[in-house]
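Z., the sequence and structure:
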Amino acid sequence: MQVIIKVFLFIFGSVIGSFLNVCIFRLPRSGTLTLDAFKDIKVNNEKLWDELFKHKFIDEEGVIQLKFKQLSHAHKLHLSTEFKSQQTQIYHILRQLCALSINNPKRSFCPNCKKQIFWYDNIPLLSYLILGAKCRECRQHIPFRYFMVELITACVFVVLYIFFGFSAKFFIYTALTCALIVSTFVDFDFQIIPDEITLGGLVIGLIVSFIFPQIHNVNTHFSGLIQSGLGLLVGGGSIFLIGEFGKIIFKKESMGGGDVKFLAMIGSILGWQYALLIFFVAPFFGAVVGITMKLRKGVETIPYGPYLSIAAFLVILWGKEFLRWFMHSS
C-alpha cells in the first residue's frame, strides 16, 4: 500500500510540477514590458519606449503601470489614439502583456512559436522524453528546466510524505515547497521574487498558523498566530538588517527587498526558530556559488532566493535535528 501511495504522489507531484512551470514562465512576464516585445514591430523602438514611459503606461523598469491595467478595454483603445501612427502596435502590445496570467491563456503554448500545446504533448515528464526535448510544431529546443521542475516536484511530494505522512504539516509544507520552487527559478531568470508568492504566501502563512497551530508545535490558535507573526518579523527583519549593514559596508544595495519578503513569508509558516536557522544556513550555499561565479565570470551579484529555498527545504526536513544538536552542543 505504501508503494502505491508513493507512486501516486510521484505522478500527482509531476502534474503539479507542470503547473509550476506555467507559474515560472508567466508570473515574471505578466504585466512587464521587455525589449523583446518590440522585435516584430517596424517602428523606432527607442522612441516607442519613450512614448510609453512619458504617458506613464510603464515605469523605468518597463513594468506596466496600474494606471493602464485598471482601464477598461474601451478606455485603453481611446488612450492609445494619442500615439497616432503607433497606436495599433502599442495597444496590442500592452493588451497582450496585461492579459498574460496564470490562467490566461487557458492552455499551455510554446514560447517560441506561440502555438497551443496539445494535451498529448503536455504529459509531465513523458512528453519531454517522447518529443526529444523539441516542440512538435517549430522543432525548437525545450529547455531541460521544464523536465527538471516536474521531476523535482514529484520527488518533493514523495519525500515530504515519507517525513510527515498525510498530516497538516505534509500539505502545508508541500504548498510551501512548491512556492520555493517557483521562486527559485524565477529568481534565477529575472533576479526577482514575485509579490504574488511572497505577500500572498505571507498572508496564507498567518491564516494556516491560526487554523493549524500544531505546525508550530503549540496547542491554541492564538499561540499559532503569535508564532507565525514572530517568524515573519525574525525572517524579514534578519534579512533587512543584514542588507542595511551591507549597504553601509559596500556602499551599494546588497540585499533586495524581495529577499526580505521571501524569508518573512517562509518564517510566517515555519516560525522564528526555523527562520533564524535558514538565515544562518543559506549563506553557506550562496557563498560557494557566489565565489565560483566571481572567479569564473567576474559576476558581482547573484540571486539569493534560491539559497534561501534550499536552506528552507533542508530545515523543513531536519530543522528539529539541527536545533536539538545546537542546543545540546551549547
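Residues 37-45 have pLDDT under 50 and may be disordered. The longest helix spans residues 221-250.

Let me know what you think.
H.
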